[in-house]
Amino acid sequence: MSTLPWIAIVADDTPATIELVTRWLDPLGFTVIGADTSDAALAAALDHKRVLLLAPAALPGLEKLIHRLHTEVNCVQIVVTTPRTAADAAAATVDAGADDLLLEPFLPLELRIRLRRAVHVLELEDQRDELEGQGQMLTEILAAAKIHSRQFLNPQLEKELTRARRFSHAVALILIDIASSHADKNTVRRLGLRLTELLRAQLDWVAAYGEHTLAVVLPETTTRGALKAAQRLRAALAGTALEGAGLPQSLRVNFGFSAVDLAPSVTLPDADRLIRSAEGYLTSAARSRVDRIAGGPALPSRSH
Question: Can you tell me the distance from the alpha carbon of 10 to that of 220, in angstroms, rounded to the nearest whole number?
């Protein structure tokens, strides 16, 4: 296998597209190559452990290529492009396992956003592999279906903030605390599993925080978006909606969230500061009563 772990394959004969992809991905350490056929794309991909593929839906053999990439490459993200007038015809590629669909003609900024999302997923997979290789974190990561350990939270949140600085996007953190009368380990675990089902796949993630508290990290989410997410989660964790998740209908939780809405004048806090802000808001929510939400921007000082 090649020593180059990151490769972007552009199965598109449009020079402008290849130039746009290269301009944005080259600084991130990707080797960008063109491929005229599905066979050429597959041959290039099999020599690498991380692959990002941008291909038109009309590429002959694309569905077979998608299947083989997902089967034979360690980690792959596939973005398919198609004319807006032929979007329905691209449904087969989505069914085959394409990760994203980009309608043409697209704006350069739109292409950049889609590629950024794909890179983000590849980075998360790479970081997870690093932790799994350390052995100690392996059980924590694989256990409880994507609920990460407390030890995972701070360093990974710091990486999310670093990524936010690089790409100029927001980051939010929600702390969810279970009322002590329901806070046994089994309930906390089941709540974590339910949260992973309610969040955005391959973007948001859940980690243990305290004995009866879970942390939800929401990349690319503003303060307003975090409030909406907390409200949506509260509604999904109420009454009969909990029956299928094995949680008691009487479950009561409080939410404290903190977010960074990136602007030119904003200095991003570190992970500890973002967590402390969320803790302060959670304390405010708990002072009122259960099933409360409190939150706002990450505060610049230790006091709230």
Answer: 26
